[in-house]
């Protein structure tokens, strides 16, 4: 930041960041609880449902990769403002009803989420350099609370609002618009001059490092576990005999379970020299809890959902923290974030799509095996990504 550049108060920046974070998951978690009803009303088949859960994750990755370009042209603050407005626009499209607005709205809102997700690590590295773990934990926790609200409140909204599932899904544009209004004065308070040079060169520079690809593999594979749970857990529970309302409530418990680990894990992991022990513990918890939800007595689904959420929230927060910790400077953090989330979400898209197709082939058994395979991959990549090293887009990796 230049000497003459104004800086909003740090507490206002933090509050605005949390409002933005709250809106970075409802677009993804609101469809799952209504998916059975949407399929029944529209005739959407199993392949179409799997495609509906996959397309948004692909757009997350595409938009994440655009983060450095948007940051150079607009600045990260205005880039986040653009992102949250795109999220609101995508959610609003769902109000039109029908499959085309549903798919289009999912892709547009996911693009906004991906763009914001690609920009936030560099922004945290810039504005909160002494509190990376705490701030990453706070915004990840708030993101998880937004996910919980989306999965738990959408079915009740279906009963309250006229307009059926389209209105219940589109209602989540309102908090996104509120967040954009809160973030706008913070973003516009900082003048930005477009930076020279190509953003792609920064990504290419960071991509020279093997560690960058290990971080990318961990980010993508742990994300695939989360998107499988977001998209398919309500259907799993309904097949086990739970009502749509109860299945949505349990999915909400899963999202709520993410909040404490999303706060604690980044805060603690950032203080550690390396993060490999966190990788092992959290991935193991995630697998055990998910398998329990498939085979354990239904009376245990609530605590198992909380355990699954704790594992997923912790691995996601750990992934974001590792991005910041492995980067030596804010520009490298932005480039590593673009690579890890851009390519990573393309990997993650395979999760919900493959899980849905596997279910059509062999019930939930083959799906469970696929979930475990993704988890094993996340574990292996995470053991390398958690090593105490830092990389820069312009130099060789060094030990911390």
Automatic annotation (TrEMBL):
SUPFAM superfamilies from the UniProt entry: MFS general substrate transporter
Keyword entries, A-Z: Membrane, Transmembrane, Transmembrane helix
Protein name per its UniProtKB record: Cyanate transporter
PANTHER family: 2-NITROIMIDAZOLE TRANSPORTER, PTHR23523
Coiled-coil annotated residue ranges, if any: none
PROSITE patterns (alphabetical): MFS
Record field: transmembrane: 45-67, 79-96, 102-120, 132-153, 165-190, 211-233, 245-265, 277-296, 302-325, 337-358, 364-383
Domain Major facilitator superfamily (MFS) profile: 193-400
GO molecular function: transmembrane transporter activity
């Amino acid at each position: 930041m230049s000497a003459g550049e104004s800086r909003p108060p740090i507490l206002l920046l933090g509050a605005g960041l949390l409002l933005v974070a709250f809106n970075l998951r409802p677009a993804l978690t609101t469809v799952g609880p209504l998916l059975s009803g949407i399929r029944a009303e529209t005739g959407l088949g199993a392949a179409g449902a799997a495609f509906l859960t996959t397309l948004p994750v692909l757009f997350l990755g595409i938009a994440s990769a655009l983060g450095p370009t948007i940051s150079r042209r607009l600045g990260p603050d205005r880039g986040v403002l653009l992102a949250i407005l795109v999220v609101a626009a995508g959610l609003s499209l769902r109000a039109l009803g029908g499959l085309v607005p549903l798919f289009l709205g999912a892709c547009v809102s996911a693009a906004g989420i991906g763009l914001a997700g690609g920009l936030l690590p560099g922004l945290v590295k810039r504005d909160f350099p002494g509190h990376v773990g705490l701030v990453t934990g706070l915004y990840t926790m708030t993101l998880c609370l937004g996910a919980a609200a989306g999965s738990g409140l959408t079915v009740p909204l279906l009963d309250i609002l006229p307009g059926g599932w389209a209105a219940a899904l589109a209602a989540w544009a309102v908090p996104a618009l509120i967040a954009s209004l809160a973030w706008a004065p913070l973003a516009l308070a900082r003048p930005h001059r477009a930076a020279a040079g190509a953003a792609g060169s920064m990504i290419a520079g960071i991509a020279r490092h093997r560690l960058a690809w290990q971080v990318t593999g961990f980010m993508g594979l742990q994300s695939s576990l989360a998107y499988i749970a977001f998209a398919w857990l309500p259907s799993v529970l309904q097949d086990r005999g739970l009502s749509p309302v109860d299945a949505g409530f349990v999915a909400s418990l899963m999202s709520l379970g993410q909040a404490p680990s999303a706060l604690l894990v980044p805060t603690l992991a950032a203080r550690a020299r390396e993060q490999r022990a966190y990788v092992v513990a959290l991935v193991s918890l995630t697998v055990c809890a998910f398998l329990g939800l498939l085979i354990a007595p239904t009376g245990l689904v609530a605590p198992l959902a909380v355990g699954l959420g704790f594992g997923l929230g912790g691995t996601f927060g750990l992934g974001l923290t590792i991005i910041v910790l492995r980067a030596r400077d804010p520009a490298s953090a932005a480039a590593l974030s673009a690579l890890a989330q851009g390519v990573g979400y393309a990997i993650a898209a395979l999760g919900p799509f493959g899980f849905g197709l596997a279910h059509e082939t062999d019930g939930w058994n083959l799906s469970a095996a696929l979930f475990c395979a993704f988890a094993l991959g996340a574990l292996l990549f995470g053991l390398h990504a958690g090593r105490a090293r830092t990389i820069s887009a312009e130099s060789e990796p060094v030990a911390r």
